[in-house]
Amino acid sequence: MYHKNIPTGFPKGFLWGGATAANQVEGAWNIDGKGLTTAEVVQKATDRQDPMAMNAVTAVTLRKAMVDKTDTLYPKRRGIDFYHRYREDIKLFAEMGFKAFRLSIAWARIFPNGDDAQPNEAGLKFYDDVFAECHKYGIEPVVTLSHFEMPLALTLKHNGWASRATIAAFTRYTKVVFERYRGIVKYWLTFNEINASTWGFVGTGALDQELDETAKLQLHYQAVHHQFVASAIAVQQCHALDPAAKIGCMLARIQTYPHTPNPTDVRAAQLEDELNLFFTDVQVRGEYPGYMNRYFAEHGVTLEMAADDEAVIKAGTVDYLSFSYYMTTVTSAADATVKTSGNMTFGGKNPYLETSAWGWQIDPLGLRIALNVFWDRYRLPLFVVENGLGALDEVTADGKIHDQYRIDYMRQHIIQMREAIKDGVELMGYTMWGPIDLISAGTSEMSKRYGFIYVDQDDAGGGSLQRLRKDSFYWYQQVIASNGTVLA
């Protein structure tokens, strides 16, 4: 009788840690030669449940942002001053026991205009210092090459990723950082939540607000195609320049459930799932899936491709698949579901799930389901590089932050990761989102806090920026020290 031992816990060498993005933590938006980025022209949302605020950029708002030299309306310009406080912050991560720290490089720190004749040495030196500080504590940097930002100059010159010209600018940037950080960065990611390019400006850097829906869809998928090619070239560059390094893709995973057992609802959910998994199908399998041919034909999308694009994509498949997981959604063929928002998407509300203050449905079991779907489909190492709870934290009179709700949320998700490993899934690591409070990606507010570490800053940028350990800080410290066995 065939039988293999079932894994009992997280593997040795599991990459426990946390994840941030340059445009949400660094600040220092206009010093040391850095150029303005697409993230720094997005105004703070007026509605905290408006998940598409980051895409509401028009030619008019763009001109207004470029003239404005303050950070009043643009909180991502100030971040939490990680640029000057990275040593303090990384030391706190080390105190928790981090094995990995996922962060991104701001492309505009290296090439302020995206296509400058020479890279900016001050920008390269900053990341030299950050990576050295990580290694000082035995923390592996997990580096995202493009995390919801690009040099704004490329939007003005090429309309961002809508133009094929942006591929050459990006691959020149990636070659520089691969060479600079050879042997220093072991784990790379190409595009953060690459499916965000079908949502608009945040992922494409392209102005599209004046387009009708068909033209928008055409632009978005054309931009995605250019990113697929750029990602594949970057994978090949990384393998050639640093064979010991690993480079992966990254998807915002939106697991979709049918509203009812009605086969029409099941098929509707399957289609939504295909539209989500399309991106990893291309980046992992190296080819466009057949089901997208019909989708493109029925929606008036015609992709412009160079003669060798398909060969480039085939040759540039990733080493591992990473993804964010925050919520699931429900789909009905008749569109009969009550809508809810979450992670920049709108979908059906699941009556069996609780929601956060931002309307995001909380579904720990959905993470196990997502991991199994990925593993069954790809048989490639998986990495949960974002998962967390945005909440309104309060500081007590004695300077404590009691965030049991965050501990409960994370415990439930970690338990489901452990169950997925027992199911046979190969899981590399878990870098929860926002180990330190940061500026929200979607709404650019500070009040939406994810961290184990509280940052004394309000939505208007006021505060001391003092860092305080929350209750969850000590809980996660215990989780890491026990390699996920102690979750109480």
From TrEMBL:
Question: What is any Pfam family matched here?
Answer: Glyco_hydro_1
InterPro entries under this entry?
GH (IPR017853), GH_1_N_CS (IPR033132), Glyco_hydro_1 (IPR001360), Glyco_hydro_1_AS (IPR018120)
Can the keyword Zinc-finger be found in this entry's annotation?
no
Molecular function (GO) terms listed? hydrolase activity, acting on glycosyl bonds
What does the record give as EC number? 3.2.1.-
Which keywords does UniProt give here?
Glycosidase, Hydrolase
| Active-site residues from the entry | E386
* Family matches, as Gene3D superfamilies: Glycosidases
- Tell me which family the UniProt entry assigns to this protein: Belongs to the glycosyl hydrolase 1 family.
**Protein name as annotated:** Glycoside hydrolase family 1 protein
User: Which species?
Assistant: Loigolactobacillus binensis
